[in-house]
Give the backbone structure.
Amino acid sequence: MKKIYDTATEALDGVISDGMLIAAGGFGLCGIPELLLEAIKQSGAKNLTFASNNAGVDDFGIGILLQTKQVKKMISSYVGENAEFMRQYLSGELELEFNPQGTLAERMRAGGAGIPGFYTKTGVGTVIAEGKEQKEFNGETYIMEEGIFADLAIVKAWKADDTGNLIFRKTARNFNVPAATCGRICVAEVEEIVPRGSLDPDAIHLPGIYVHRIIQGSHEKRIEQRTTRKKEDA
Amino acid sequence: MPWDRNQMAARAAQELEDGMYVNLGIGIPTLVANYVGDKDITLQSENGMLGMGPFPFEGEEDPDLINAGKQTITELSRTSYFDSATSFGMIRGGKIAAAVLGAMEVDEEGDLANWMIPGVLVKGMGGAMDLVAGVGRVIVVMDHTNKHGKSKLLKKCTLPLTGKKVVNRIITNLGVLDVVEGGLKIVELAEGVTEDQIREATEANLVN
């Protein structure tokens, strides 16, 4: 079956619709599916819910979908870098569900592994625990969190082969792996598609079984905090 | 003289032992890396990396290589990368020996508040709740009092909690305190700081 599509818009054809729950990879602006987000903007799909660690910045990442008011709700751990997000949230236009970062990652991982719920100590005794089932194991209290089963996952990888096996690069792997697994359909954008047989099977980060559609494109890969040192300091 | 930021970081670095895997928070905790000396410490960055290196040289920044504060960094010969679920798996699984974190408030039971001030713009807890619930030892580094001179070491936290009964040790500009049965215990004074000064600046119950 053909997994490679020519453009992000073609790769989303027939899989994007209003009101969807979309799991998106990336941490900050690192490893975000920037081409697919742009294509979602062009699609005009609205009332979207995003499970994504962050909400991008005003003019990049999920931020571009906030500007066009296509997002109804965010499930995130940290949204501090986006002024438009704050404006919409404070005016009640946008719903926000804070998840601790590890809880969000595990909810995606669990959803992808067919696990509807799990127990964790994270958030016990905090606002996160409100309304959630609590259970004792070996004398310690845990809260139940639910797996995320997304309608669509969008991720960014470094390389793919034509069967959808993915390799990520450095810290750009982040949420892309758990997000990819929890989507009913997963669309991946990569920097390079290589023929099958050219990736080391022992070095695949995400097997192609999780990846349904792939596009290749060029990425801006914006840096959020450019921190450096001078050679003479070394 | 109370400790300055760098002296607090240097004191926190003494808490770290050879062979430890450690997570450092943003702010003063980040400075701790400058004071580990010859100790074999591996820094975890919760966005998916063990073995975090220093900032890159100008012109060598890599957008695919950032820390949890979204700053460009470098890798070391020991570095490994992994996804976010694996990263928090090692945090929740108790594999990370210690976390050094900043705080707004700590109370005498070891409750920690460091993510949210109601009525002020809410940014989110990031990985802080996972870290304090999962790592072996939680070391807080913060000023003893806030900018209004009020104690940050309280009988009961007033801000929304990051975790309950999670803090082990507090390093402030005035000294070092442990969370023990019944309250906080002074274990060290900053040079030139008296026990009375700490008592004066501490709302939490102090035990001997």
Notes: Chain B touches chain A through 54 residues (CB under 8 Å).
